[in-house]
Design a protein that fits this description.
- By secondary structure, the protein is α+β, with helices and mostly antiparallel strands.
- The strands form 3 sheets. It has a 4-stranded antiparallel beta sheet with strand order 1-6-7-5, with helices on one face. It has a 4-stranded antiparallel beta sheet with strand order 2-3-4-8, covered by helices on one side. Strands 9-10 form a two-stranded antiparallel sheet.
- Helix 1 crosses helix 6 and helix 3 crosses helix 6.
- Bound molecules: zinc ion.
- Zinc ion (ZN) binds next to loops.
Amino acid sequence: MPELPEVEVTRLSLADRIAGARIESVRMGKPLRWPLGIDSQRLVGQVVQRVRRRGKYLLFDLDQSVLLLHLGMSGSLSFAASHPEAGAHDHFELFTTRGVLRLNDPRRFGAVVHSSSERHEPALKLLGGLGVEPLTDEFTLEAFHAGLKRRSAPIKQVLLAGNVVVGVGNIYASEALFLAGIRPTLRAAKVSRPRAEKLRIAIREVLARAVAKGGSTLRDFSNADGQTGYFQLEAMIYGREGQPCRVCGTTIRAIRQGQRATFFCPHCQKS
Ligand SMILES: [Zn+2]
């Protein structure tokens, strides 16, 4: 599943090239998770001003409105001068003066949604509940710790919920909690200020490293057939149940939290 780093790398791969492109036509495939919300013909003639990201949404700013694009579970986005003929899983294409933006999404949990602005519906509904962006200056210790103090759920689930800090998916939450030495089951409100700071730094580190890694493989992953590759960190903890901790050698344990697998080292993450 594309996580924040993959979405950010996707943005970086096309933002400069598509900025200034005028939309010439739109092709819609099978229905996606949510409807576009506008007659696609009304997009024709509009110019893509820039591409931003909020959480896992890409925001394509048009002249007077915004297109929100989510990759869902299996989506990938490519932008190229031309593409091979659309396949069965290519469900949205924006033909522009600078190239063709194509969304490939076999499971169709992704979506492209039109909104008059990000402060109006339907964008407001999709973006309104999102927490702070972890890779911006707004992700301060004050904001983070204050957010954690208001939540009694386990820290890992609070991270995944995305309403304190956005875009920390299952892998990245597990890795960051390991780096910060925090047990994933600890209640968020019980995370002390110094430990919140360790966790804040760890979250930034794992996400920034993943973006950097994706950025360095950008050439490979926006390859000729237009498939976006996903990339993972060399995990310290995630997926390593039963294996020795890379720091202390203790056997890594796995538990379930809210239907999701959680991994931790009982020694390095005592509480
Ligand atoms: Zn350990």
